[in-house]
């Protein structure tokens, strides 16, 4: 196996770190995780009470059965309005340092306010959120149990963040293989693993225990980018079309792919990368034709399927019903 030592070292470190994960991640000092906050956040996540017309919930775009994504290019929100970007998976989201496709949020507490107020998503105001939750006796009791006070928007986003930090996925065949179970991957998946860390060059951007560098890249999927990505924040021409590298955990479940959902299948995505993408002035220099054969693409796709953690869909703690 010709794995670059930097990438291999990161994965070995990740395997040790994942073994030390606790069932209840601590959270930041400003929002330490408690069972009461998680229970409240879980109830809110699946409740359409958070949308203006009570038609959609957080789970409408982040379904546990699909690793907290949905199979649409962009998801419908209130009144059937469509958002701009593909819904990202929430597995291991508590580890992210830059949230949203353009890295617009530094933490989950800030991130939660974006879909809540977005006209194309939940379309709520802080005043209406507070009014609804305070009028609901069950939520009033849960907020007091979790925070010792009446419902507020500040504590609403804290509860949602606490629940999302529990959405941990670390039990894929790849994880078992890295832990020493040689039978966890089949021969095609092992060949794909070698390609991933060698000639396919995926490891440059998809690194670490969650297979993402957390940085923004222009991956040359379009000649012209109508969605300018990171440049929304930086107003720099060189950032047009740059988006945060997504995790590859559970990637076989999270299609369609890219920020706009423009690649329907993993094979579509792999073939585009193999061809070297489209000519784009901001294309990352790492993007170039790879020259992989169809058989090698088969193996690479097989390895990506080995990043699926089937326990996510089965975990009762990730469902609306109580475990």
From TrEMBL:
Q: Which residues form the signal peptide?
A: 1-19
For this entry, the protein name equals: Methylamine utilization protein
Q: Which Gene Ontology cellular component terms are annotated?
A: periplasmic space
Report residues binding heme c 1. 58, 61-62
| InterPro entries attached to this UniProt entry | Cyt_c-like_dom (IPR009056), Cyt_c-like_dom_sf (IPR036909), Cytochrome_c_Peroxidase/MauG (IPR051395), Di-haem_cyt_c_peroxidsae (IPR004852), MauG/Cytc_peroxidase (IPR026259)
- Where does this chain mainly localize? periplasm
Q: Which UniProt keywords apply?
A: Heme, Iron, Metal-binding, Oxidoreductase, Periplasm, Signal
Subcellular locations according to the entry: Periplasm
Give the record's PTM text: Binds 2 heme groups per subunit.
Q: Does the keyword Signal apply?
A: yes
Classification from the root reads: Bacteria, Thermotogati, Deinococcota, Deinococci, Deinococcales
For activity, the cofactor(s) needed are: heme
